[in-house]
Amino acid sequence: MADPKGFMTTPRQEWPRRPVEERVRDWDEVYVPRALLPIISKQADRCMDCGVPFCHDACPLGNLIPEWNDLVSREDWRAASDRLHATNNFPEFTGRLCPAPCEAGCVLAINQPAVTIKNVECAIADRAWAEGFTPARPPERLSGRTVAVIGSGPTGLAAAQQLTRAGHTVAVYEKDDRIGGLMRYGIPEFKMAKRHLERRIEQMRAEGTKFRTSTTVGRDVGAVELRGRYDAVVIATGATAWRELSVPGRELEGIQQAMEYLPLANRVCEGDLEVSPLSAAGRHVVIVGGGDTGADCLGTAVREGAASVTQLDIYAQPGAERDEDTEPWPTYPKIYRLSAAHEEARDLRTAPAADADARLFAASTLHFAGDDSGHVRSLHLVEVDELRRPLPGTGRTLPVDLVLLALGFSGPDQEDGLIRQLGLQLAPRGTLARDDGFATNVPGVFAAGDAARGQSLIVWAIAEGRAVAAAVDRYLTGSSQLPAPVAPRDRPMRV
């Protein structure tokens, strides 16, 4: 702890965002370039050397947060990078995309604003790349064992990198034309520029990981055939089976799933398309779902030039402070948070009828209505109580040309044949069943990430990737020195 009084003398200061009017005119990241490094050492000074750092338990990766905070406060960036990368393969991803449960568990957060852990992490990662502290680390010798990883999201990439560095020959199979999974086509460019993803992929190639794109296992290559080619298989396909909204009028044109909409916008940024065929430009948009995917749709629709954008959240508007009775420290509280997309919608007044920013809280969709051509034109909703029961006299109608369903995901997609061909067992909620060692009912086949855990955070995805790599390494060699930060049945801290 470089400054023992830093948490008392230095106020919390976050990475500043670019002005709303500027950033909504492009797809660049929302933060002011180069504005983080001048403030981050003093922010790291706020880490109070609490003795029992609950941020460790709040983070499934077990990041050594007090250690790299201290190193950043002393501006020892190389050592800070070493400590950060000791537990996290991709800190530039989590530093931009993770909602930072570690900050909710910060001891300082008991009665003060938490340390800006997420910003410190991102600063270390970016500085490490700028200074060349992240060279490729190919193995000294090969084991002669081969592993196929199915899926190239954060779980698949983390597992592949760990297993490659352990000396195994690893091939990653991805159904899309580019590597990255939802980080590639689900996360908008303004949240994380894809250059960060490309750097890691090139690093992994230099280490020896092989990539097979445009290959759907179960369709383009048989799952049983693939299993026969490799000594072990890791299934990390994610939870891509989206939830539906079964209300009258769902069949109307103009009602799309969020993951039908967001990839097209990302393909525009990649240069594959000039204009998205589902562009929100000039249209009245309603997003059904109050989570992060809905916020991603919101920011995307604003940048595409929507006439209006409203987001429906079935939950009541949370308060600004933690409810100590129902969500005591150090759990991650449900409080009112203003994402960059919500800040943009608020300042631009994209939804004049909304309760706050672009959101209508405690709102449940009753049905859709369309015009004579079968296109959606209105959404009928009602307010609900905490048990989601309709409140009499609260019905209202919103004009809409484009509805985006962002209701989350229930488990892995079963249409590609992978699950059926291998005969994989499913858990009651539709995810892949596995034992305490990440193994499925099929010998040599392991499951990790959202496909087995269910929809979760990127930090849990990376932790699962690291842990399943240790399990596979043990299966192949009889023992493993790879870290296993989580077990299959571990869950976030909750009441």
TrEMBL record:
Keyword Transport annotated: no
Q: What is its EC number?
A: 1.4.1.13
Gene3D superfamilies the UniProt entry points to: Alpha-helical ferredoxin, FAD/NAD(P)-binding domain
Q: Keywords of this protein's UniProt record, alphabetized? A: Amino-acid biosynthesis, Glutamate biosynthesis, Iron, Iron-sulfur, Metal-binding, Oxidoreductase
Gene Ontology molecular function: any one: iron-sulfur cluster binding
Q: Does the keyword Amino-acid biosynthesis apply?
A: yes
Pathway in which the depicted protein is active: Amino-acid biosynthesis
UniProt domain 4Fe-4S ferredoxin-type: residue ranges: 38-69
| Coiled coil start-end | none
| GO process terms (BP) | glutamate biosynthetic process
Q: What's a Pfam family in this record? A: Pyr_redox_2
Cited NCBIfam families: GOGAT_sm_gam (TIGR01317)
Q: What is this protein called?
A: Glutamate synthase
> From which organism does this entry originate?
Streptomyces yokosukanensis
User: Gene name?
Assistant: gltD
